[in-house]
Amino acid sequence: MRQSKFFMPTLKETPADAVAKSHQLMLRGGYIRQVTAGVYSYLPLAYRVLNKAEKIMEEEMAKINVPECLMPALLPASLWEESGRMKKYGPEMFRLNDRHDRPSLLGPTHEETFTELIAKNLKSYKQMPISLYQIQTKYRDENRPRFGLLRGREFIMLDAYSFAATRQQLDEQFDDEKQAFENIFKRCGVTVRPVIADSGTMGGKDSTEFQAPAEIGEDTIAVNETGTYAANLEMAQSLDDFKQEPEDPQPLEKVATPNCDSIEKLAKFLNVSATRIVKSILYIADGQKVLVLIRGDKQINEAKLAHVIDADDIHEAQTSDLEALTGSAKGGVGPVKADFADRIIADETVKNLYNVVVGASETDYQFKNANLDRDFKVDEFADIRVANEGELDPVDHLPLKFTTSIEVGHIFKLGTYYTKTMGADFLDQNGKAQPVIMGSYGIGVTRMLSAIVEQNLTDHGIAWPKEIAPFDIQLVQMKMNDDQQTAVAEKLESSLSAKYDVLYDDRKERPGVKFNDADLVGAPIRITIGRKVGDGIVEVKRPSDEKAQEVALNDLDAWIAKELG
RNA sequence: CGGGAAUUAGCUCAGCUUGGUAGAGCGCUUCGUUCGGGACGAAGAGGUCACAGGUUCAAAUCCUGCAUUCCCGACCA
Prior knowledge:
By secondary structure, the protein is of the alpha+beta class. The chain has three domains: 21-69 and 108-236 and 402-454, BirA Bifunctional Protein, domain 2 (2-Layer Sandwich); 253-382, YbaK/aminoacyl-tRNA synthetase-associated domain (YbaK protein); 469-564, Rossmann fold. It is 26% helix and 28% strand. Strands 6, 7, 8, 9, 10, 11, 20 and 23 form an eight-stranded antiparallel sheet that branches. It has a five-stranded mixed sheet with strand order 15-13-14-16-19. Strands 25-24-26-27-28 form a five-stranded mixed sheet, with helices on both faces. Strand 27 (537-541) and strand 28 (549-552) form a beta hairpin. The mean pLDDT is 92. It binds one RNA strand through strand 20 and helix 13.
């Protein structure tokens, strides 16, 4: 490809709206342009990278015998009424009506579409296990698209769905997909860590996210130093190493604690450590009043809590409503005689505490010397606390480190939610109807591009991993009016193009301009045809190299072959 | 969805407080000199100052509304 004919509008200055490095570089390098919030045009450079990533995905899916198909993005709302998600999905879904006023939508994901296909066309256990996948554009009307391709309203996703007759088949499909995903990420040059994740409100087991650690990720993952434990912060567990020395129960005592609406103020006012206080917070969970208790030095993890309560929507009760709901304003809510609560859930840290401080269910009053069971009851204990950096992991008891990261993939065993609600049954060996067991596997393809760039930055551009670089080799000719240079460059272009993707910078530009654009293209090899070409010498440089090195034209093929494998 | 900010040339921004015919740098076009990390000089092209009302003799500038975009948070099968 001649660069004079190639379209890559590079920018000298960084557009003000771009914050993430990957976003800046993809704009500056002429990879993408924004059309509207969260919606981008993929210009030739980005499209080449996308195609290469998709080709790798196709190869890896073929290896595990999963065929590709393509579902529509435009879907009838009726399909989603069937699964119950038309209501559940909320404002994130792009909804529209067609000319006959039939409710329609743009697919944010495709469980329903695939499940219906299977429901209508798969009847026997003999046809299973089977999987399908597609690489397709998804639509989600995100509240807040950001960081370029990282979170878009229109984005490209690989989504695979497995259909099994037995749990064991599902397990095998899951393991195959997991291996395929790991191969894909490796070949695409993105470093990922499989982490334990939350599978969301749809249920499902063995939920695993593939997280790419990066500077600007939207997620936080907790990892121990050996990598034997890694979890999304939403789910991360940690050991509680605090142990209170046993004490004899003392009589319950009510004390006034004016203006103590936080644990810090209360601890200071009463001159006790936060570990001697039990914090009580009222949550509204799908309309239920749930009083949640946790030791004063810990924070409540709402994702864990939602799981334990099995609620779709949970939020703290408004401070302004507290008095009406519990009889006391902030700084007094407590578990003693808490008749207002439909349920009382406590974190495990509330166990084995003696003579603690709790709210007295009266504004600005606390009880001292409260004891579990004697003074207050708990319906259920669970791990509902936020893990903190430095705490020990539950597996090898090593300190946890936190890293921001980008969720580039998510796989989990979906089970029978969709197949049951949408009637995807098959006949087993006994002629009995059973719901098909599903697995769900996704890669954010365009998001992965952001992750790759974030992980492969150089001082001036991008160092694309070899398999997905938009070009393998960039030829840079210094003087376009030098016939000798032109002859060598054109010869190299034609010989190398037989085996590699070559971009030949044949523009009448100054060297500085060419070098800077080459840094943005980020090809694994840059070949400079310059003043020493008369001696049969060119220069080669990898994006990560500080300086170029000279190579004789005779040795060039070997050097390239060694480099590109 | 809550909070904050921005919107003036293709890009980065100034001008607004104190109303008076629209500015800079970069980019683009032409010519010349340059030519190994975004050159220099000269001459040009390019703007409904997001949009809609209002105040005023006069609005980029003041007032009201609205739209879009970005940031922080919440949300995110």
